[in-house]
């Protein structure tokens, strides 16, 4: 199974992160067919990365600025049977691509996603990870930093990581920074929607992969998407994203993003997983935090409160996005990635 790996980059501040990501892909047991690095409207960075990584295909984002355009550009360039996506501030375990590849023997499988673990503040730097320092045998970071005591696992999605409540097996949508799809499905579903997901907009929007996965399943109902926790990556969480202020802002932005998603694919499919998470997983998380507080873990009360605030801010963002609409410049349009 030939797998092309696409990494989207946009800023010089992640220079070491990007190189660490590329090094981790090169170290895969299942050798990548090619590595494609898409640079988002930054000519200086494009030139520097092309010179620094001569064995990598470095291209400019050919579409509108943002993560969706970068991913669509990577898909258009890719030649592999499968296209895998890795965040530019993440490193993949050596078995990452192998875990993806084993599922594609089943022709019904259209996409496979993996488990994303956090590299919290205090973890090894990207330069150390790039050169193999402070790693355990098998490629696992020797240290993963320190999770804030108040930070609930149910909301790890706010920092781009797998969250409590995800179960291996069939899933509605994959997480965009650790995902793979058969290249042929982009001709069926179209590309990632322009106007959904990360861009240079001031709010940390998301959900471009959610909207894409739902749209794919709507157009190809027999296609299966699978979550495999053996496909592991580690995603860096900078100090500013481990703060409560960012947590609230990210939850609100997720609500806005979900409003965009439901406008594209409908509320039934667009909110099915979110309803289950809100009605089952989150109440259990609150109860777990309160029990921990009673047993003497004062941070348990903080986790219970964070779950409550996170849900409220997400619902607030969704309500605002649904009632007033998101700005015209952020409205989704299906472009690119059609072959």
Walk me through what this model shows.
InterPro entries: Glyco_trans_2-like, Glycosyltransf_2, Nucleotide-diphossugar_trans. This is Glycosyltransferase, GT2 family. Keywords: Transferase. GO terms for molecular function: transferase activity. With 339 residues, this protein is α/β, with parallel strands linked by helices. The protein has one domain. It contains eleven helices and eleven strands. The strands form two sheets. Strands 1, 2, 3, 4, 5, 6, 7, 8 and 10 form a nine-stranded mixed beta sheet that branches. Strands 9-11 form a two-stranded antiparallel ribbon. It is globular. It starts with a strand and ends in a 5-residue tail after the last strand. 50% of the residues are buried.
* Largest sheet descriptor: 9 strands, mixed
In whole angstroms, the N-to-C terminal distance is 20 Å
What number is the mean pLDDT?
89
Query: What is the count of distinct domains?
Result: 1
Q: Tell me the fraction of residues in β-strands, as a range.
A: 15-25%
| Helix content, binned percent | 40-55%
**Global morphology:** globular
Number of strands: 11
What is the number of helical segments per DSSP (H or I, 4+ residues)? 11
Stretches where pLDDT is under 50 for at least 5 consecutive residues are: 326-335
> Nearest-angstrom radius of gyration?
19 Å
What is the N-to-C succession of helices and strands? EHEHEHEEHEHEEHEHEHHHHE
Structural class: alpha/beta
Organism: Thermomonospora echinospora
Keywords: Transferase
Pfam families: Glycos_transf_2
Domain Glycosyltransferase 2-like: 4-115
């Amino acid at each position: 199974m030939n797998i092309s790996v696409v990494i989207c980059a946009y800023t010089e501040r992640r220079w070491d992160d990007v190189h660490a990501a590329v090094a981790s892909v090169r170290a895969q047991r299942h050798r990548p067919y090619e590595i494609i690095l898409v640079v988002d409207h930054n000519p200086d960075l494009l030139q520097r990365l092309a010179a620094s990584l001569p064995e990598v295909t470095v291209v400019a984002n050919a579409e509108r600025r943002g993560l969706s355009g970068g991913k669509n550009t990577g898909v258009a360039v890719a030649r592999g049977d499968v296209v895998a996506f890795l965040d530019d501030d993440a490193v993949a375990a050596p078995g990452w691509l192998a875990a993806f590849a084993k599922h594609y023997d089943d022709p019904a499988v259209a996409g496979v996603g993996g488990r994303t673990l956090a590299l919290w503040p205090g973890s090894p730097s990207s330069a150390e990870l790039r050169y193999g320092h402070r790693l355990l045998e098998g490629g696992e970071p020797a240290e993963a930093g320190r999770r804030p005591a108040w930070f609930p696992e149910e909301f790890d999605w706010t920092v781009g990581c797998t969250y409590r409540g995800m179960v291996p097996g069939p899933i509605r949508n994959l997480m965009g920074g650790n995902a793979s799809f058969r290249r042929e499905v982009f001709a069926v579903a179209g590309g990632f929607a322009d106007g959904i997901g990360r861009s240079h907009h001031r709010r940390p929007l998301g959900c471009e992969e959610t909207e894409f996965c739902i749209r794919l399943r709507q157009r190809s109902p027999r296609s299966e998407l699978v979550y495999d926790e053996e496909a592991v990556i580690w995603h860096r969480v900078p100090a500013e994203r481990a703060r409560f202020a960012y947590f609230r802002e990210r939850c609100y932005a997720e609500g806005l993003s979900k409003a965009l998603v439901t406008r594209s694919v409908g509320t039934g499919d667009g909110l099915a997983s979110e309803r289950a998470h809100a009605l089952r997983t989150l109440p259990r998380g609150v109860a777990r935090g309160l029990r921990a507080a009673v047993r003497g873990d004062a941070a348990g009360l903080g986790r219970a409160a964070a779950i409550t605030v996170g849900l409220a801010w997400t619902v607030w963002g969704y309500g605002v996005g649904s009632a007033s609409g998101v700005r015209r410049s952020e409205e989704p349009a299906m472009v690119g990635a059609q072959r």
